[in-house]
Amino acid sequence: MSHKSARSLITVLVLGVVAFTLFACASPAQPTAPAAAQPTAAAKAPAAAQPTAAQGQAPAASKATVGVILPTKDEPRWLQDQAVFQKAGWEPLFSQGDSAKEKANVEALISQGVKVIIITPQDATAAAAAAKQAKDAGIKVISYDRLIRDTDAVDYYVTFDSKAVGSAWSDYLIQQAGTTKGNPLYIYTGASSDNNAFIFFQGAWEKIQPKIADGTFVIKNSSEAVNLQSKPTLTRDEQAKIIGQTTTNWDFNTAKSLAESNLTKATAADKGTAFVLAPNDGTARAIADAFAADKDVKKYYITGQDAEKASVQYIIDGKQSMTVLKDVRTLAADAVAAANAFVAGKTPDKTTTYNNGKIDVPAKPSPIVTVTKDNVKKALIDSGYYQASDFKGLQ
User: Fold this and answer.
1) pLDDT, tens digit, for every residue of 220-244?
2) DSSP string, 272-335
3) Does the 42-160+328-364 domain belong in CATH 3.40.50.2300?
4) What pairs with residue 219 in β-bridges?
5) Which of 113, 166, 234, 272 fits as disulfide partner to 238, beta carbons 3.0 to 4.6 Å?
């Protein structure tokens, strides 16, 4: 073969290789699974916690811009909140009842560069220092469900109408008492470190005090409350004296032990048909168990809040009288909307303010619903909050 022919052949071969390479590169890539097929935290969260468009959920802000801190994993209520925030794309941190851990969580979020922190304080006053750290770092602080006290570092308060919760308890007990007199009243409260415990109690006291004054109810388990029973409104210090004697510290075991102690000291005449002001569902079940086990208690009416599944079953079974539904879907949606507003450089909606001992904190309280055996299906099942299959004996 001549050199010329050899060069021509080589040229043809090279061109062929190049053409083949270009053809191969132009071939379609192998298809990949669509992103929508990847399960997310939102898909795994329970349906009961899903906010709906009708409840006005705002679209979640960027995952990296908002941090959430909740007080504990040990109460079902906060797991509901967790599920909703997870659906928004935010993975909450938990303080587990420890203010030091809460502060560490805030510092971790500051280091991550978040723009907004949503926090439910474990201790309303102790959380002030962590809130100030966040403010000093240029972060907006949203106090969630519980108000952080004694600081100007709180920008917004997302809450239910806590005073209305306490008022609903007293309304229920008053309705059950009717025109009868001398009904034994047992008062139980939340943690003295939680500002909400004071607001709940304030709402309850201001509603029921006239019925204590007229003899409808007789306080049986707090000498401080007896000393103050003629006062329609109480100062915070006066509330603190009563809470000091009646606190459950939001703890089931503490609540049951306190109730058992109260009943041991009470005479049979101080029991009979008892009226019990209990501060939330977990403590209500514990207190209800103590009253049910006392042979001198013939009947009892007991309040609660949070509409926990276990308490809904207690209501169906006649072991708990009522609860107050604070729809966390609504509350969390309000928190998402407030966070989005701050991220966008706007101001969240405000209808009122709450004084935290330092400033008036803007807020727009979410509504509450009283739930009894008579309306449990309408309030909790028909609304989509829970499924009928979650309960036994539901009519």
Assistant:
1) 999 999 999 999 999 999 999 999 9
2) EEEEEE-SSHHHHHHHHHHHHH-TTEEEEEE---S--HHHHHHHHHTS--EEEE--HHHHHHHH
3) yes
4) 185
5) 234
